[in-house]
Design a protein that fits this description.
With about 190 residues, the chain is mainly alpha-helical. About 70% of the residues lie in helices and about 0% in strands. The protein has one domain.
């Protein structure tokens, strides 16, 4: 397990233009990013086409394009990673939804379609979560950011507090409030 200060040191070197920093950073963060991706995808509907390695690779490609002069520390790096993974999952869910609605699909009659049973996914709906997070961000940006960092990046309370520059008790309180609000928003109407 890499020491957080090692990652911060390498990010600083990358920010200062060290060409070897990126190749040093990759093996240190890949395992953590892969674990985050597995965590996200475990909440997805069965049969989701993205695999953890593909999600990590796509996120890492986008991270490389990020301007190195903006990296602050390990927590910031994983916070940005969480945001990118969320965007990738939402984009994938939107593409799947478009395909499900017949984007270039073969047309069949209603009687032919009735032969096939369609089951509804039981796992967290990424699009509903994304919409709820967008709504929460309008009400309370800090709470939305905390949910994103905790849920998508898997950051601890302490790391989240460091990223948003708040106390751990504030993060804990806001996290609980945001969880309750999201639960209410994502629960089926009674």
């Amino acid at each position: 397990m890499p020491v957080p200060s090692d990652i911060t040191r390498i990010l600083t070197a990358w920010r200062q233009g060290d060409p070897e920093a990126l190749s040093s950073l990759t093996p240190l963060v890949y395992g953590e990013l892969h674990a985050l991706a597995q965590n996200y995808l475990s909440r997805e509907r069965p049969g989701h086409i993205l695999q953890p390695s593909a999600l990590v690779n796509e996120a890492f490609l986008r991270l490389i394009e990020w301007q190195p002069d903006k990296w602050q520390d390990r927590a910031h790096f994983f916070g940005v990673s969480a945001t990118l993974m969320r965007r990738i999952l939402v984009q994938s869910a939107r593409e799947a939804q478009t395909a499900k609605r017949g984007n270039g699909a073969l047309r069949v009659s209603l009687s032919e379609a009735a032969q096939f049973a369609v089951t509804q996914p039981t796992d967290t709906d990424v699009l509903a979560l994304d919409a709820a997070l967008d709504a929460l961000e309008k009400l309370n940006p800090r709470q939305a950011r905390i949910i994103e960092l905790r849920f998508f990046a898997g950051l601890s309370l302490e790391d989240t507090a460091e990223v948003i520059d708040a106390s751990v008790s504030t993060v804990r309180r806001d996290f609980r409030m945001a969880q309750a609000w999201l639960f209410q928003q994502l629960s089926p109407a009674s």
